[in-house]
Specification:
Strand 1 (7-24) and strand 2 (30-50) form a beta hairpin. This protein is an alpha+beta fold. Strands 1, 2, 3, 4, 5, 6, 7, 8, 9 and 10 form a ten-stranded mixed beta sheet that branches. The model has no long low-confidence stretch (mean pLDDT 95). The chain is globular, with a radius of gyration of 19 Å. It has ten helices and ten strands. Helix 1 runs parallel beside helix 2 (104-119) and helix 7 (213-219) crosses helix 8. The chain has two domains: 7-161, 2-Layer Sandwich (Ribosomal Protein S5, domain 2); 167-275, Alpha-Beta Plaits. Helices cover 33% and strands 28% of the residues.
Length: 286
């Protein structure tokens, strides 16, 4: 018998190379300005169609019920939008830490949307898939569109940009940061003056910062220790609301040496290259 069709696809990590908080909306969401960039490191999803309409995900993630997992939610949302009677068998190879600020759940959702669109033969365009993704989370559209971007609003208004593509060493301090706790903190900066995309890009990486960093430092001493250790060796920032922190290096050799040092100091760490085009889109040819 012929093998059933399947797709094995990357779900890359992202970094926030800059993150400004410029206000708070009446609905409680925060107005942001940020620069998203992908990494050549992330999770992997293997998807295969099912004829019975069921969506099954393996393995289950500790503390996350299957019906709450963004992969399952994305698959069922796409089913409903398309009126599709097919289902999916999905296997997740998880590498990205949960609550790390690397966008793992959002990236998983985007890979599910694009992968099942291909497997189920739906032919949805990126605008339609990105709109579906936004209903799952503010970071999903950038992964759907697949290009480094300047983002505004709650992160959903995207303009493609080409950023420098240095090497990064990323440390996970071993804690899970609550985005809700960070954005709910009284001391969080919420009144940074907005800047233009042109000004942000002209200023370059040396002027970029993350408005969440001071609050996360205060709430999570483990993150503060990681920031202090890494920043003594290379230019360092928090990504998103954390917990991961990243150092920017100009060469693979520098990154290799810093990763080796981090490992000797018992940090959970990995090395990756910055990318302007998502590896998911490279595989799918979108």
């Amino acid at each position: 018998m012929p093998e059933s069709p399947h797709l094995t696809l990357p779900a890359p990590a992202k970094l926030n190379r800059l993150l400004l908080i410029t206000g708070r909306r009446p609905d409680g969401y925060h107005e942001l300005q940020t620069l998203f960039q992908f990494l050549d490191h992330g999770d992997t999803l293997t998807l295969a169609p099912r004829a019975d309409g069921q969506v099954r995900l393996t393995p289950t993630l500790h503390g996350v019920a299957p019906e709450h997992n963004l992969i399952v939610r994305a698959a069922r949302l796409l089913q409903a939008e398309a009126g599709c009677r097919l289902g999916a068998e999905i296997h997740l190879e998880k590498r990205l830490p949960m609550g790390g600020g690397l966008g793992g759940g959002s990236s998983n959702a985007a890979t599910t949307l694009l992968g099942l669109d291909r497997l189920w033969g739906l032919g949805f365009d990126l605008d339609r898939l990105a709109a579906l993704g936004l209903s799952l989370g503010a970071d999903v559209p950038v992964f759907v569109r697949g290009h480094a971007a300047w983002a505004e609003g709650i992160g959903e208004r995207l303009t493609p940009v080409d950023l420098d593509t240095p090497w990064f060493v990323v440390i996970h301090p071993g804690v899970t940061v609550s985005t809700q706790a960070v954005f709910g903190a009284a001391q969080l900066t919420r009144d940074t003056l907005p800047i233009t995309m042109a000004r942000a890009l002209q200023g370059g990486a040396s002027s970029w910062r993350n408005d969440c960093e001071a609050t996360v430092r205060e709430l999570y001493p483990e993150v503060a220790r990681a920031l202090d250790w890494l920043s003594s060796r290379a230019p360092t920032m928090l990504t998103g609301t954390g917990a991961c922190v990243f150092a920017r290096l100009q060469s693979k050799g520098e990154a290799d040496r810093l990763l080796a040092e981090a490992t000797r100091h018992h940090w959970q760490a990995f090395m990756a290259r910055g990318l302007n085009c998502s590896p998911l889109h490279a595989v799918l040819g979108r």
